[in-house]
Each structure stands twice: as C-alpha cells, then as structure tokens.
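$ ./design --mode recover --in tokens.txt
reading tokens...
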C-alpha cells in the first residue's frame, strides 16, 4: 500500500518559515520524481516545486523562487519543502506528489494546511 504522509503545516505569521515533510512508503522512493503542489480555496492545484530522482535538478514556480527550497533524502524516503519569508498568498493546502514516468505511476498525499496570517 502506497502512502505519502505530509507533515509540518500550520499557522504562521507573514515573514515566517515552515518546513514541510513528506514521508513515503510502499514505493521504491529513489525511482520517483517528487514534487509539491498547493491548492488555495476556489483555485486549481498548482505546482510549487519539483526535484529529480537523485536531487540533481529542481524546478520552482515563479511565485516561490528564492523563498522555497525542495530537497530529498533517499535514505529516509522523504522529501522536504523549506518555506521562508512566507506571504499571505502562500496560504493553501500543500500536497506531496510522487511520479515514476516510465511505468506511468503517480501518487498523492492527503495534504497539509499552511495558513499565513497575522
């Protein structure tokens, strides 16, 4: 059974920081490209950041470049999203996503709420 379990969300003031974690089980983690998406109320789910299987390349949405950092630990089957200088517009549910392109496998976590408010 595949599980992606996000943690680390919460309420933070503007300018603050949070670190999200996504622990994977039931998959061979090192074969999967990992990414974080977010979905704000009334909006579609959008890509925030992505990282390749060995972490050699990352990709970010323009809105988070310079503030967010995605990383992975293949020994711990975990992907992280360090979020700094948070803004109110970063408020959303953040989802972890795992994808293995060859076999066409794709999995989602259950999401974790991030609220940026004073």
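writing sequence...
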């Amino acid at each position: 059974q595949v599980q992606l379990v996000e943690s680390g969300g919460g309420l933070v003031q503007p300018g603050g920081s949070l670190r999200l974690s996504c622990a994977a089980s039931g998959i061979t983690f090192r074969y999967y490209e990992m990414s974080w998406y977010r979905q704000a109320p009334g909006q579609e789910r959008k890509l925030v950041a992505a990282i390749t299987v060995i972490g050699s390349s990352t990709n970010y949405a323009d809105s988070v470049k310079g503030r967010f950092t995605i990383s992975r630990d293949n020994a711990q089957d975990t992907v992280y999203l360090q979020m700094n200088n948070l803004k109110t517009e970063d408020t959303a549910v953040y989802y972890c996503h795992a994808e293995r392109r060859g076999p066409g496998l794709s999995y989602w976590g259950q999401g974790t709420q991030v609220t940026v408010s004073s």
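exit 0
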